[in-house]
Amino acid sequence: MTDDGDQRSISSPVGDEAPPGMPSWVKYLLLGLLAVVLIVVLAMLVGGGDHGPGRHGASHSAPVRPDDTVALT
C-alpha cells in the first residue's frame, strides 16, 4: 500500500462519501401524514362527541313500540 496523501479509512474503501439521504418527496409525505394525524387527534379531543366503546352498545332510550297507524287485518 502506498501513501499518496489520500486519507481514506481502511474500513471504508469507497471513501468518505455519505450514503444518500431520504428523498424530499418522502419527507414531505411523512410531514403531511403527521399533520393529518395531529389534526384528527385534535379534532377528537376538542370536538368530543359520542366516541368510545359505549357508542355501539345498547341504547338507554325508551323501548320501541309497534307503530299504531298500521292496521292489522
Task: List strands and helices in order, with pairings.
Elements: H1 24-47
Distance between the termini: 107 Å
Sheet/helix structural class? mainly alpha
Question: Which percent range describes the beta-strand content?
Answer: under 5%
| Unreliably modeled segments | none
* Sheet with most strands: none
Q: Could you give the count of β-strands?
A: 0
The dominant shape is: rod-shaped
By DSSP (H or I, 4+ residues per run), the number of helices equals 1
Provide the gyration radius in Å: 33 Å
H/E topology pattern = H
Q: What portion of residues is helical? A: 25-40%
Mean pLDDT reading: 75
What report would you give on this structure?
- The chain is an all-alpha fold and 73 residues long.
- It has one helix spanning 24-47.
- The radius of gyration is 33 Å and the shape is rod-shaped.
Question: Characteristics of this structure?
Answer:
single chain; 0% strand; mainly alpha; 1 helix; 73 residues
